[in-house]
Specification:
Structural class: alpha+beta
Number of domains: 1
Number of strands: 9
Radius of gyration: 16 Å
Shape: globular
Distance between the termini: 28 Å
Largest sheet: 9 strands, antiparallel
């Protein structure tokens, strides 16, 4: 099946405010494999929220609402449908975004002013795709690579971060 996950990256000093706005609280319980609906960990000067799609997806409306509290960078990945997206949210709206839906066989789509590094990533992965002789979707990696470039973390490599379970406030 593969990963179906959303990553939200925020400045560490904004973590408490964003968690409160999301209705989440850190339980302090270690979530070694990020299997809880929501997990959190500190990465350098950032705080990362890992949200599994199986349980409680976050929507674009959630991202817009949370970005009124603090800027956030998101990465959505569905390996089963070959969908990936990287978006920056500020002041209640998407500032920029890039996404690829492999189920349609299309290219990448984007909105807003992408970071300068995006052009080289797009060029590199389009060239790799053009040279592809097997049925591999390299364009899927473009939004993921941009999230790595901007946020420092690939969804498939947690860098051994000590994730703890995040629970909905008032929940069990």
């Amino acid at each position: 099946m593969g990963f179906e996950v959303t990553l939200l990256l925020i400045a560490a000093d904004n973590a408490d405010r964003v968690l409160k706005a999301a209705g989440l609280q850190d339980t302090g319980d270690l979530d070694e494999y990020s299997e809880a609906p929501f997990s959190g960990a500190t990465l350098d000067r950032h705080y990362l929220i890992w949200a599994n799609w199986d349980d409680d997806m976050m929507s674009e409306e959630d991202f817009a609402r949370l970005s009124r509290t603090a800027p956030i960078l998101t990465c959505d990945v569905s390996e089963s449908s070959a969908f990936s997206a990287c978006r920056a949210w500020r002041d209640g709206r998407m500032a920029w975004g890039i996404w690829h839906d492999g189920s349609t066989g299309g290219d990448v789509d984007f909105a807003g002013d992408l970071p300068a590094s995006a052009a080289a990533l797009i060029e590199r992965y389009r060239a790799t795709q053009a040279a592809e002789t097997d049925n591999v979707d390299h364009l899927f990696e473009i939004p993921v690579a941009l999230f790595v470039d901007q946020g420092g973390l690939h969804y498939g490599d947690d860098h051994g971060l000590p994730f703890t379970e995040l629970a909905r406030e008032g929940g069990p």
